[in-house]
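Objective 1b of the project was to move from sequence-level analysis to a structural picture of ligand recognition. The entry below was assembled by the postdoctoral researcher (A.K.) and checked by the PI before modelling. It contains the amino acid sequence of the target and the SMILES of the bound compound, guanosine-5'-triphosphate.
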Amino acid sequence: MELIRNFSIIAHIDHGKSTLADRIIQLCGGLSEREMEAQVLDNNPIERERGITIKAQSVSLPYKARDGKTYQLNFIDTPGHVDFSYEVSRSLSACEGALLVVDAAQGVEAQSVANCYTALEQGLEVIPVLNKIDLPTADIEKAKAEIEAVIGLDASDAIPVSAKTGQNVVEVLEAIIHRIPPPKPRDTDKLQALIIDSWFDNYLGVVSLVRVMQGEIKPGDKILVMSTGRTHLVDDVGVFTPKRKKLDKLSAGEVGWINASIKDVHGAPVGDTLTHAGKPAEAPLPGFQTMQPRVFAGLFPVSADDYPALREALDKLRLNDAAMFFEPESSEAMGFGFRCGFLGMLHMEIVQERLEREYDLDLITTAPTVVYEVAKTDGTVLDMDNPAKLPPPQMIAEIREPIIVATILTPAEYVGNVIKLCEEKRGVQRSIQYLATQVQVTYELPLAEVVLDFFDRLKSVSRGYASMDYHLERFDAGPFVRVDILINGDRVDALSLIVHRSHADRRGRELVERMKDLIPRQQFDVAIQAAIGAAVIARSTVKALRKNVLAKCYGGDISRKKKLLEKQKEGKKRMKQVGSVEIPQEAFLAVLKVDK
Ligand SMILES: Nc1nc2c(ncn2[C@@H]2O[C@H](COP(=O)(O)OP(=O)(O)OP(=O)(O)O)[C@@H](O)[C@H]2O)c(=O)[nH]1
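Corresponding predicted holo structure:
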């Protein structure tokens, strides 16, 4: 155990975590040059394409140090996006230390600050690493000053490196073995293993990444999942090197995978404790906060025939993604589909992309909504994740919306823009603090205002420099109303929105205008209305088509004609019928884009 070091890397997206991890793997001889390919830790092709890490993974590496001893380094990867910050804390809880990687040309970003605090709270040793020193814009002293001012962490012995060229990376390894303590020995050998992550493998079924806190775990052991009381036989145990390698056992202090023929990820819940059925530990380890889906949307197949395929695909995805939620939903406008819950917008986009790409499904996604608390006049409180299901106004005593506290870090020159954006999004300022080279602004903001386009807007008003982190604080009552969209008098239930009364008129108007541009002209007039209850707040009309589209081409240009027809066919693919009107997918997505 003296020779084991368990560590994580905390870094903001793009600061070079994967590149550094690859270098470390290479230095420890984990993979040959050919096998390195690109970044081995980003397994999922979508993660790789988007260059963001989502799932926690791990590697065990032997490192022969300058002192002549060979250490076992267990690196547990953490995701870098704000949607997935709960996964960071669970990766950290399996470690004794963490590297804080800061891009020396960019400085500290909000996400790393929050994750760094989590690490410090959990008692981890944090080693600051300044990356990208090969860049001419890198400023080591400034980055150090920022770490000290913003995080309050001593950065005098921060290690300057270039993960790209490999310069100084070996010093990081030496710091890991000297500065991060080995796992603490326990005085009992009763098994306690913390499930850091579980995922579904097509060949093996559920594989769990565990940190053995005490005792040991071997193939053939009968293990007990402490929260469910279920027992399973362990088939195999091992580590990733990063290749999957079977071992005889995993011992106290180690991190590795186990496979115990559990059917789905819910059978091995993340944060749960495994122990021996015959000789159980007295108590489970402290678990993790369960993750609550915060953003909900309806997913509907474009073709009703795809409904069973969609269900199957969602079932499969859920095997891997314990944070995803879904249940059947039926909509008058959209037919049968599923109401799905996600951690945030990025999570939603990724799931949607996987369904379309890996399962070849054409989907329509309704506007995402947050979960409102609806207090009814009869004293009951509902969690409302679907505006179409809001009870009638006379039954509602109060609607409460989720409020977050956002911490934003920005260079001083953009602070005015950032404040303006927050105010526009109904934010209430809590504090503003000038630190070394950045400003830290804290705002209370309605989550509903944040989920749609806040990140994009924040990036654009700060030229990409501002970063943010947030946590849910409470629910606040407010004057919320449901805005319905009617097409030729039919309510499109899937387009209903819950909005703040003060934004309802503008929102309704924008929505109607946008829908008008997106609904193709038909053989008859199409009336589009936005309404609150029976009161129409905006209206518009798509005039009936008078001429055949092809008439414009004067019969001459065949290729142009063909193009037009093809374009129409394209458009047809993602259409939904509402009453007698066909609505393209973009019209539904317009709801997303309307600026609140
Ligand atoms: N010049 C230079 N570029 C680097 C260095 N380290 C990483 N990069 C580049 O920075 C970009 C981001 O690096 P990644 O390693 O993918 O970043 P990451 O933090 O893992 O990103 P996520 O996986 O999204 O969390 C890539 O284009 C790298 O090539 C470095 O030391 N110097």
